[in-house]
Each structure stands twice: as C-alpha cells, then as structure tokens.
C-alpha cells in the first residue's frame, strides 16, 4: 500500500511539473513579475531591481553539492562583475527563505552583496520556463541550472546547463569572460 501511495505522489509531482512547465524564456523577452520572491522574511515579498545589467543565477537547490560549488565563484568575483557593469547578482532557488538565508550565511559568513532569493512556490522559475521535475533527488519541482543576463528587465542572454549537476556554461568564470 505504501508503494502505491508513493507512486501516486510521484505521479502527481510529475503532472504538476508538466502543468507548470512553459516554454523557456528567450533573449529579448521581458523578465516576468518577481512579486512572489522573498529574501529577508517569509511574509515579505522581494521585487528584483532589474534596471541596468543584472545577472540571475538559477540553481536547483541550496546546500546541494554542485550549487554550493558554483555560487562561491560569484561571491568571490562580485567586484569583477561590478567592474563589467553588472548592477546586481541574484541567486534564485526553489527553496524557502529560511533555507536561502542559512545557505548565504554558510557560503559567505563575512557577508556578500550577492542576493540570495527564495522562489518558494516556484512561480518565478515556472514563468521563466525553467522548472523541471527533480522529485527523485530533491523531492519536487526545482529550477534548472541557468544564467540570465538581463538588461533593463529584458533577457539579454540565457545559458542553461543540459545536465543540472554540470557546471559548464553557468560557471562564474565562464559568464564573466562573456561580459
């Protein structure tokens, strides 16, 4: 009986992810509304400031191995990104605000200007068309690993890892070299 229930739950997650899935955002498109995001508190919405040039780093999960290897590159190179005209770097994950705050403190105990943003409902990630079913490894729908360079609220460029556990096109050094 338990295995039937588990199978039904997994099927429901897959269906929910398929329903939420949209076509992947493309260069030239407007970045969707960011009103459901959070940074400081669960009851306080965060709207991304996307005026100028900004980088949105989408990751599958806080505290996961590849994500925790990827984000320190952005923290260390923050000043280099600023020198190339980047106004803000946002790290977005389908996690709750408490997890994102703890992950930021873990990766940058002395602080960082990189902003860690919780997309706890996955609404922003879904609107980007970058949600995938990560149920087998992370328990539910999650964000693909991606980089969006935004210019004045429009996608200038986007790179998505074909395999979420890879760091090829989304590595900080690669992105910095392309600016």
TrEMBL record:
Molecular-function GO terms, alphabetical: thioredoxin peroxidase activity
A Pfam family this chain is assigned to: Redoxin
Keywords of the record: Antioxidant, Oxidoreductase, Peroxidase, Redox-active center
Gene3D superfamilies: Glutaredoxin
Residues at the catalytic site: 67 (cysteine sulfenic acid (-soh) intermediate)
Record keyword Ligase present: no
Residues annotated as domain Thioredoxin: 5-179
Oxidoreductase among keywords: yes
GO biological process, alphabetically ordered: cell redox homeostasis; cellular response to oxidative stress; hydrogen peroxide catabolic process
A cellular component term, taken from the record's GO annotations: mitochondrion
Entry similarity comment: Belongs to the peroxiredoxin family. Prx5 subfamily.
Function recorded in the entry: Thiol-specific peroxidase that catalyzes the reduction of hydrogen peroxide and organic hydroperoxides to water and alcohols, respectively. Plays a role in cell protection against oxidative stress by detoxifying peroxides.
Annotated PANTHER family: PEROXIREDOXIN, PEROXISOMAL MEMBRANE ASSOCIATED PROTEIN 20
Protein name as it appears in the record: Thioredoxin domain-containing protein
């Amino acid at each position: 009986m338990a295995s039937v229930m588990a199978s039904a739950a997994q099927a429901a997650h897959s269906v929910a992810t398929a329903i939420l899935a949209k076509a992947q955002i493309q260069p030239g498109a407007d970045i969707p509304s960011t009103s459901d995001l959070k940074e400081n508190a669960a009851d306080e919405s965060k709207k991304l400031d996307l005026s100028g040039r900004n980088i949105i780093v989408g990751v599958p999960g806080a505290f996961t191995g590849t994500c925790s290897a990827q984000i320190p590159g952005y923290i260390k190179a923050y000043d280099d990104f600023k020198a190339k005209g980047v106004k803000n770097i946002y790290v977005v994950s389908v996690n709750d605000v408490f997890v994102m705050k703890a992950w930021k403190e873990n990766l940058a105990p002395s602080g960082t200007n990189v902003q860690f943003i919780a997309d706890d409902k996955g609404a922003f990630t879904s609107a980007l068309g970058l949600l995938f079913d990560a149920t087998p490894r992370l328990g539910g729908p999650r964000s693909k690993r991606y980089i969006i360079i935004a210019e004045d609220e429009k996608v200038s460029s986007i790179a998505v890892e074909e395999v979420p556990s890879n760091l090829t096109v989304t590595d900080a050094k690669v992105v910095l070299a392309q600016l």
